[in-house]
């Protein structure tokens, strides 16, 4: 009697559908998708999505009076000017300036120091920004060294990078000559 009921409800071996196999495949797929979503949330994969780099148009120039081959005879000190022409504003605490020689060796890495309201490096190069609120259109940063040339002395060619630290993106990468 049970065999007859079994055949009636479940069907014979030839009539049975593949629904158990499809059910198992769907359960595995749901489990894999759920595990991927949980892993992404736990590992913070979406954290950096909002940190996009600002778009700016900047010009980099030098003072023409500086003679890098003979720093003692010049009335000025070496300076590199980074001017923000247009585009997004950048807060100083999200800004880093890197000055390299023509071989790529770092001469100065300038990070914003809120206590002194200036950018300072490990050498003698400094940028005073006490008269500025943001690096925005119309602002010019003057990277200056002392009269002897300091970090910038003896260099004919400099590479200046402006880095947006929040997104870790180079905003400007320019090469200038004295």
TrEMBL record:
It comes from the Archaea. Residues 54-79 are annotated as: Disordered. InterPro entries: Flagellin/pilin_N_arc, Pilin_N_archaeal. Residues 16-102 form the Archaeal Type IV pilin N-terminal domain. Keywords: Membrane, Transmembrane, Transmembrane helix. Pfam families: Pilin_N. The keyword Transmembrane helix applies. The chain crosses the membrane at residues 20-42. PANTHER family: ARCHAEAL TYPE IV PILIN N-TERMINAL DOMAIN-CONTAINING PROTEIN, VNG6441H. This is Archaeal Type IV pilin N-terminal domain-containing protein. It comes from Natrialba aegyptia DSM 13077.
């Amino acid at each position: 009697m049970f065999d007859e009921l079994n055949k009636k409800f479940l069907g014979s071996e030839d009539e049975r559908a593949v629904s158990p196999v499809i059910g198992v495949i769907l359960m595995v797929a749901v489990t894999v998708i759920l595990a991927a979503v949980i892993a992404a949330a736990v590992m913070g994969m979406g954290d950096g999505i909002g940190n996009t780099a600002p778009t700016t148009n900047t010009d980099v120039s030098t003072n023409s009076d500086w003679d890098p081959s003979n720093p003692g005879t010049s009335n000025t000190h070496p300076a590199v000017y980074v001017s923000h022409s247009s585009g997004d504003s950048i807060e100083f605490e999200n800004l880093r300036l890197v000055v390299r020689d023509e071989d790529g060796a770092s001469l100065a890495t300038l990070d914003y120091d809120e206590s002194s309201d200036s950018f300072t490096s490990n050498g003698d190069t400094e940028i005073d920004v006490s008269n500025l609120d943001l690096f925005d259109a119309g602002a010019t940063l003057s990277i200056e060294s002392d009269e002897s040339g300091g970090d910038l002395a003896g260099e004919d060619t400099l590479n200046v990078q402006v880095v947006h630290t929040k997104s870790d993106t180079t905003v400007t990468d320019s090469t200038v000559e004295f």
